[in-house]
Amino acid sequence: MQDFDNSSMTILVADDQEPNRELLSALLTAEGYQVICAEDGDQALSLIRSQEIDLALLDVVMPRRTGFTVCQITKSDPETRMIPIVLVTGLNRPDDRVDGAVCGADDFLSKPVNKRELLARVHSLLRLKQFTDELDNAETVLFSLALSIEAKDPYTGGHCDRLSNYSMRVAERLRLPEDLRVALRRGALIHDIGKLAVPEHILLKPGPLTAEERIIMQQHSITGERICSPLRSFRQVLPIIRHHHEKWDGSGYPDGLKGEQIPLTARILQVTDVYDALTTDRPYRKALPKEEALAILREEMKRGWWDRSILDEFEAVVNAHEPMESARPGR
Fold it and tell me: Does the global pTM surpass 0.70?
């Protein structure tokens, strides 16, 4: 990761005292940073929500919303939670720093502000944000590639979005922790990214695959895991990508895992994946109605393919959210 250009970074300085705003602004602009100022907590929050802010310096004691409150709201919003926040305070009680940490603050500065300390901490946090932004960009590229695979086949339009919705609803019913829900949402969107390496004449073949073609197709889960493995933030997504074609009785691929050896998130996705395929038009058949698709899944479960408990939860989700005539054409 290369160092950033200071002039590309925008820092928010929020303090109700004009001399403090002017001092911080002068120190930062002298280093080439772009600086915008706010006079109170409400104005600071409005700027965070409406501007591209790379870092915020918030005075703790401000009119209207305090720095603590602005920090807590910012860190609770998925759109702004990755903005580094430094609380600037003249308060010296240990509890004040504890309160700031609880609110999600990334660092603290004590008044009067030391120039070298200010610039060192700002630079460090901006480097960390740059690294996070690069990860976000990498994830965006992966999601775009996954959608490009979906776009090749007119029969699979919207497939990944539907899988994401189904999987998240099942996750809610199972009360999975937030990190696994995020992994499921991401996994639903990019589970087939390994198909980038599958030749189009195999990927789009309307009829049955030959034994050789099937072997090539089955490599996509391993390839997909390899593509995504450099992203540490995808650590819990990788098992979904690799194992969403395993089966409860061990007859799936690529590793022949059985029962609870198959990660829970992969077990959720595999059921939603098969259901969506059954209820979407294909070159060789029309989309099946909801009841028929669920009946097929039940029969496959009796054969030992799916986790009964997951299928029960998924069926409850489908019955709660889809009308009786649920067959839909491919889009």
Answer: no
